[in-house]
Design a protein that fits this description.
The complex is a heterodimer of chains A (109) and B (240). With 109 residues, chain A is mainly alpha-helical. Chain A folds into 2 domains: 32 residues; 74 residues, no CATH class. Chain A is built from 5 helices and 2 strands. Chain A has a two-stranded antiparallel sheet with strand order 1-2. In chain A, helix 4 runs antiparallel to helix 5. Chain B has 2 domains: 159 residues, no CATH class; 50 residues, no CATH class. Chain B is mainly alpha-helical.
């Protein structure tokens, strides 16, 4: 891509961000959301997060890897267990990363 | 929690409740910063991109397209699809922001992120009548913006010295894990998460990252279905 095209791409991506994030807020009351849709929206964050997380953990280079030889999947499972036990976000991040590093680079010593 | 909180208290509460996910947001910003430079953008371009778009997943999705000289409209459309989940977020928050000026609504919308949104839904679920919603939201959103941009700039300027084989992007995913686990306490949400995960993985090959959107809708549908069945079973067993 040429330099002007690159900056044009940035502007288009910014516009896509503003339209999706703020568009509905600016539409005001004219746009009515049905109650059934409204109640479905309560589940949106959990579903969106799951849809981001699952491929991050279970897919490697386009291939599905659900076995014990996938360190990212095991680190994610460790993270879930740590959060369930401790309710600590920082513990989840650190514990998961340590599990990943141990599985990837091997146990020290 | 007897007296109403001041706007200042609510702002700092928003900051405080976002910061536990800070290390994850930081790691993710760092990785995005490094990835932008490694994909061939100049430092000036990467800095401009980060400050303009402020959209981690859309930026990461756009990088291979920019590097591969895809048409600008394909780049824009991909960013639109990746960002479509924010329309769903806006549908949830719009009720709280309707009394504000158009400029303020646009700003609050622009500042939304996944972590901030989950915190905000949690606040309104636990305190449906919380009076200082806007300052709370602003506090969390500002904290997220600062952490993200600082990390992203560090990644851009330190791209040559930051190791890329440590799997740092996993820290961002783990921060999201800590957000999603407490949301799964009830059956309908758990069903939604299971279906969304399966669909996202199964549909990963779809172009323009449409699988993400498909997964969100499938998950929401599954959650609603579980809710109506679960609710019917409950009504059957109790007199209410």
């Amino acid at each position: 891509m040429s330099t002007p095209e690159i900056w044009l791409s940035f502007l288009c991506i910014t516009l896509a961000t503003v339209v999706t994030r703020s568009g509905l807020l600016l539409a005001g009351r004219r746009f009515v959301i049905p109650p059934r849709v409204e109640s479905a929206l309560r589940y949106a964050p959990a579903c969106a997060l799951a849809a981001i997380i699952a491929p991050d953990l279970a897919v490697d280079d386009g291939a599905l890897r659900l076995g014990l030889d996938n360190p990212r999947l095991l680190a994610g499972a460790a993270g879930i267990a740590i959060f369930a036990l401790t309710r600590s976000t920082i513990g989840t991040i650190l514990g998961g990363m340590i599990a990943f590093w141990l599985l990837t680079f091997g146990l020290p010593g | 929690m007897s007296a109403a909180p001041s706007a200042r208290d609510a702002f700092w509460r928003g900051v405080r409740e976002l910061l536990p996910a800070g290390p994850g947001v930081f790691a993710w910003g760092l990785v995005t910063g490094v990835a932008m430079v490694k994909s061939g953008l100049t430092v000036a371009q990467a800095t401009g991109f980060s400050l303009l778009a402020y959209a981690g997943s859309a930026q990461l999705a756009a990088l291979p397209l920019i590097a591969g000289a895809a048409p600008v409209w394909v780049v824009a459309f991909t960013a639109l699809i990746v960002n479509l989940r924010f329309v769903v977020y806006a549908a949830y928050t719009r009720g709280s922001f309707q009394h504000l000026s158009a400029g303020r609504r646009a700003l609050l919308g622009y500042l939304v992120g996944d972590v901030m949104f989950v915190r905000y839904v949690a606040l309104l679920t636990n305190h449906p009548d919380y009076p200082q919603r806007v300052p709370y939201y602003l506090g969390g959103a500002a904290a997220n913006w600062v952490v993200w941009q600082v990390a992203s700039l560090l990644g851009i300027f330190g791209a040559d010295v930051i190791p890329t084989d440590w799997g740092l992007e996993l820290a961002g995913t783990l921060a999201l894990v800590a957000l999603v686990v407490p949301l799964c306490a009830r059956l309908p949400a758990l069903a939604g998460v299971a279906v969304a995960s399966a669909v996202a993985v199964a549909a990963r090959g779809l172009p323009l990252r449409l699988g993400l959107l498909l997964a969100v809708f499938a998950g929401m549908g599954a959650a609603l279905l579980a809710e109506s069945r679960h609710g019917a079973a409950r009504r059957g067993s109790s007199a209410s």
